[in-house]
Design brief:
By secondary structure, the chain is an all-beta fold. About 0% of the residues lie in helices and about 45% in strands. A six-stranded antiparallel β-sheet has the order 2-3-9-17-11-12, with no helix packed on it.
Length: about 675
């Protein structure tokens, strides 16, 4: 792993190329697509997503609204929320941040608030309706009770047709004229100082809307939710539902799928409407992908600080805390100075929410060790730290860890080959930080074969896949520039495959994260794993037989030594719904010179379905997929592409001097986050 000096790239327009076609018309413009929640009268907001090859599917749809509970001030209305002619005020709700037809944030969760029009229903009064919603982890409700508080029993149906009963409990919309506190598990989402009457009058009665949630069965995705058919008293009313689509690790999960399958807010229909909500600053630059949960986004910067930043509300964009975890400063290396360059993991230590992350070198701590940390997510206090090496020996935490079955797996890598270290992978106890197992890729006394990309876990088998860097000249080097399969139990090697000498260049090591995918080959379903080398070749293997060699390989770009210069590939790729998406550096497509690209690929043979040419810079950071959209960072730009055809539906340029996106974006709970090497951290929303 050797780095050349960072090259400033010109921001040009991207070009979309059809495979086998001719240059076509410049960058695809964002079409004036329908925004979120364009509901017809009486219907809930419908969020439609597109999946490549499978046509449209619905994330939230189903039973129509059956009650009108919001009315205009001063107007006579047929609305009758509580059965006694009283309603929420649309004006007062808008003043509380709940305007008609908008996306609203409550404690970091995004909801589509109904579009309010006279004489049209705007909520579900629960009578056993079936609502189609696909999410995982947690299902959230926005609503209230009339003549309550009220409870009822509903049913969640999962995609495997299993079911889960749940209790929906909602506080009375007036808290019984202010005499009661919200029910346990209810959070006040919005408060208005008055309510309207059907006759056009106003009553000075405080009304509230509440948020509550149901924990879902781990590892399952919902197909639908059936609202309670009855309530113990009064009526249950639901205005909106949302999934809690946290992004808790590098590339979303331990498999590093790059796909937030639980996201219900952002879709191909409304991503064109994304806008900057707030920005923050990380001194010396940002190269990592952020993580997000519980209304907080966690990210590292090259000044050595780990930040916890509030996502929404009055303190949005402000740090709750920032803890200094050190820098590395080595004269003669490029870069000379770096801080936190790996993505944190959100987890827990003995029930305490925790953030796991590698430091920036800890020279500021004075002992010269390179540590992996667990810090308290609430305040940044250190829970444990474990030394993975020393700066003097050349160690650095490039590799983002992966949390699996109570252990954290982290690659061991050198700081820009100055000097090389003894590469390997370490397994840490997530509760104590104790080293459980280590595997070194070269014998004692040798150097090289760093693992500087993140390992990936196959959750079905517990196999860890990782790729290695360049050898250090050891006579009996075995694992240099290789794909390796490890047993997660003890880090013993199952099988491995090295790049042939004929395909190696001056610095053609692996610096990416393996992508897990499936394909049907010769009528047989295969579980595959792949990775791109800096030589520009993408290698695909049978997960059960890495040593058997590649199933297929393809020269996706010319390759080279310097990823940020565009002549070497390190992009972590994604696979979703039967299609593999591959990012590259410099490549020529149909006679056009591109500074970077994203391609949709047949996973069975590497054939291209479409290719998108970028003009600003190479794609270095991990690709991200959400609801029919693949998102790439390149140069100073963020580009969102419709997976059905590769057309651009959203793009954003960081116009600051020195802007360059090294890391990929994270998508969670209706927002998109990215950090730039110019030090700008940006949050987008609808």
């Amino acid at each position: 792993m050797r780095y050349s000096a960072i090259t400033r790239l010109l921001a040009l327009c991207g070009i979309i190329l059809a495979v086998g076609g001719t240059l076509g018309g410049g960058m695809a413009q964002a079409a004036p697509l329908r925004g979120p929640g364009s509901s017809t009268p009486g219907n809930p907001p419908t969020k439609t997503t597109k999946t490549a090859g499978n046509g449209p599917k619905t994330a939230i749809s189903g039973a129509t609204y059956n009650n009108e509970g919001i009315s205009a001030d001063g107007a006579t209305s047929v609305a009758n929320f509580d059965g006694s002619g009283n309603n929420y005020s649309t004006t007062a709700l808008a003043a509380a941040g709940f305007a008609s037809g908008t996306v609203v944030d409550v404690n970091g969760i995004s909801y589509q608030w109904p579009t309010v029009t006279a004489s049209n229903a705007d909520n579900w009064m629960a009578t056993g309706q079936v609502i189609n919603v696909g999410t995982a982890g947690t299902l959230w409700f926005l609503g209230s009770a009339t003549n309550g508080p009220s409870t009822g029993t509903g049913t969640i149906t999962y995609t495997d047709n299993s079911t889960q009963s749940f209790t929906l409990a909602l506080s009375d919309w007036t808290l019984n004229a202010g005499t009661l506190a919200p029910l346990a598990g209810n959070t006040i989402a919005a408060t208005t100082p008055y309510r309207d009457t059907t006759a056009g009058g106003r009553e000075t009665v405080t009304t509230d809307v509440f948020a509550t949630y149901v924990n879902l069965t781990a590892g399952k995705t919902t197909k639908s939710v059936t609202l309670p058919a009855t309530a113990n008293q009064g009526h249950l009313h639901v205005f909106a539902l949302s999934g809690q689509s946290d992004w808790t690790s590098y590339m979303a999960d331990s498999a590093h799928s790059g796909n937030n399958a639980a996201e219900t807010t952002l879709t191909a229909s409304n991503i064109p409407n994304l806008a900057v909500k707030w920005t923050a600053t990380g001194a010396n630059g940002i190269s990592t992908q952020p993580v997000e949960a519980n209304n907080s986004v966690y990210w590292g910067s090259w000044d050595g600080k780990l930040h916890a930043t509030t996502v929404s509300g009055g303190n949005a964009g402000k740090d709750q805390w920032a803890v200094a975890l050190g820098q590395t400063n080595v004269a003669g290396c490029d870069p000379q100075i770096a801080g936190i360059a790996n993505t944190p993991i959100i987890g827990a230590v003995n029930g305490t929410p925790a953030i796991f992350v590698g430091d920036g070198g800890n020279q500021g701590g004075g002992d010269g060790n390179v540590y992996y940390y667990a810090v308290n997510a609430a305040n940044g206090n250190i829970l444990w730290k474990t030394s993975l090496g020393t700066i003097a020996n050349g160690n650095f935490d490039w590799s983002s860890g992966v949390l699996y079955n109570g252990s954290i797996y982290v690659g061991l890598a050198s700081y820009g080959d100055c000097p090389l270290i003894r590469g390997g992978i370490v397994k840490l106890n997530a509760t104590t930080g104790a080293i459980q197992n280590e595997f070194f890729t070269v014998p004692s006394g040798c150097t090289g074969d760093s693992i500087w990309g993140a390992p990936s876990v196959d959750p079905a088998t517990g196999t860890i896949y990782a790729v290695t860097g360049n050898p250090g000249g050891c006579a009996n080097d075995t694992y240099g520039e290789s794909m390796i399969a490890f047993r997660s139990s003890d880090l013993s090697v199952i099988s491995y495959w090295p790049v042939p000498q004929s395909q190696r260049g001056g610095d053609s090591d692996f610096g990416t994260t393996p992508v897990l995918f499936t394909a049907t080959i010769g009528g047989t379903a295969k579980s595959l794993v792949g990775a791109v080398n800096k030589n520009g070749i993408f290698y695909a293997f049978d997960r059960t037989n890495i040593s058997g060699g590649t199933v297929w390989q393809d020269q996706v770009s010319p390759g080279g030594d310097c990823p940020q210069c565009g002549d070497a590939d390190i992009t972590p790729d994604v696979f979703v719904n039967g299609t593999l998406y591959i990012g590259t550096g410099t490549v020529t497509l149909n006679g056009t010179s591109c500074r970077g690209s994203v391609s949709a690929v047949n996973p069975a043979n590497g054939a291209y379905l479409w290719r998108h040419c970028f003009g600003s810079g190479p794609v270095l950071g991990a690709l991200t997929y959400v609801n029919g959209v693949v998102i790439a960072t390149q140069g100073a730009w963020i580009n969102a592409l419709d997976v059905t055809n590769g057309n651009t539906i959203f793009r954003y340029q960081d116009t600051a001097s020195g802007a360059f996106f090294y890391g990929g974006v994270a998508v969670a709970n209706g927002r998109l986050y990215a950090g730039n090497l110019d030090g700008t951290f940006v949050a987008f929303g609808l």
